[in-house]
Amino acid sequence: MARPLLLLSLLSFTLASELAANLPRHDLSTDTMITLAGYQAEVHKVITPDGYILTLYRIVGEGPVVFMQHGLEDSSAAWVLAGPEHGAPAFRLAEEGYDVWLGNYRGNHDSREHQSLDADRDNQFWQFSWDEMARYDLPTSLHYVLERTGVSKLYYVGHSMGTTTYMAMNSVDPTWADRVELAVLLAPVAYVDHMKSPIKLLAPFSDLVQWVADHMGMGEFLPSNWLMDLIADFVCGDSPLEVICENVIFLLTGYDESQMNKTMLPTIASHCPAGTSSYTVLQYAQEVKHKRFGGLDWGSDEKNLLHHGSVEPPLYDLHNVNTKVALFWGNNDWLVSEKDLVKIMSQVPHVVINYQVPHDGWNHLDFLYAIDIQELQNDDLVAALAMYPID
Question: Is the pLDDT confidence value at 263 over 50?
Answer without folding.
Answer: yes
